[in-house]
Amino acid sequence: MSPYLSWLSSGDNAWQMTAATLVGLMSIPALAVLYGGIVQRKWAVNTMMMVFSAFALTLIVWVLWAFKMGFGQPWIETFLGKPGTVVGQAGEQARADIPLLNGLMPKFRFPEGSLVYFQFVFAAITPILFIGSVIGRIKFKVWLIFVPLWITFAYAVNAFLLWGGGYWAGQGALDYSGGYVIHLAAGVSGFVAAAMVGPRLAKDRASAKPNNLLFIAVGAGILWLGWNGFNGGDPYFAGADATAAVVNTNLATAVAMMTWIIMDMGFGKDRKPTFLGGVNGMICGLVGITPAAGYVNGVGAIIIGAVDAAAVWALFSYLPRKVWPFNKVDDALGVVYTHGFAGLIGGLMVGLLADPKMIVYLGLGKTANVTTAGLFYGNPRQLWIQAGAALTIIVWDGVVTYLILRVIKFFTPLRMPDAELVTGDLAVHGEEVYPVESDEPVPVLAGGGDDGPDDPFLDQEKVLTE
Question: Could you tell me which CATH number the domain at 10-419 has?
């Protein structure tokens, strides 16, 4: 007896499942903790609920029909795959297969279930990312309806076009791990959703301070290291290109984080380095290198990290103040910048910096190695292909997001009533992230005065955080 099928590589399969788990950790708990720490404390529970529910809903939709729409047999020309389930024996134990990529890459050496789960965690993190655009006002019921529809009509199309052998894959568009399929899509859809749902309460926008920087640090750290699975798992084999992708990911991220911190110190409003600024730079580096990780060399990774962070820093500083529609839309956590623009810039830079000496798959016999080349390596056409693919994602995801929310709006308002917006988690979920025991005396500041125990307008929030 043997535990291994003849075509299965235990190393490849182990790495694929490990990489998928690392990516899953980027959603739960990383983004739940990261976003939950950034928002006002009255929205921390709502944020966590949206993250975990999106993760669960996506998996259900994914195995019942959406995986095959992104990675199955063509159904609507080269635009979309045919819906189908992957819950039977073959969907879990048969040899993994992406029909339109047969002959264009080595045959998979792990089961279909590993591929399904790996691609699921990519799908799940995309709507989770743009929670940051609409947090603090979108109705939870609307979110539960929106996520399955968006995965079906937006994400599955993106995946098929670029990863499942669809139109832009056939044109040679490069998106190593989702700079377009995930991050550009999240930025565009989040921005459109924020515009349609409307802004947070004016008071909330004016006092939008993080409630827990330590939670942010935990979430950001898991996000950074989880990205090793995000980019390292996408060659689908535990080979040299996976190693290069992991090294490039960390290199670009380190450079981007330090670039943002230096920009804050040299040109920021207060000329001070901030932890939140460093996290923004970190995310820009992670997002920027994602479409390029296994296609560029280390020098390219450094350039992408520096350019992406500097460009997004400048856009983040300028657009919300002076340029329509960015000065009219309340994108609460700036997802359109750190994911939308960062993914777009990274994807375009693949068209410049893709190095033909970086081997994705080795050729055998007379078969050539699988490599890519950008404009700086003699292939100017690649930049135009990258731009065309980006434009498709921007237009399609923007339109689909708008239409889904318009339909939902016929049946229920998109935003919570003002009474719930004022109270937050306690009104929506009946829970608080930092509950105060009602049978215990409220601590007070020593010294009396305006904040003393005799003051009828005692600021309890200030007291409790001292």
Answer: 1.10.3430.10
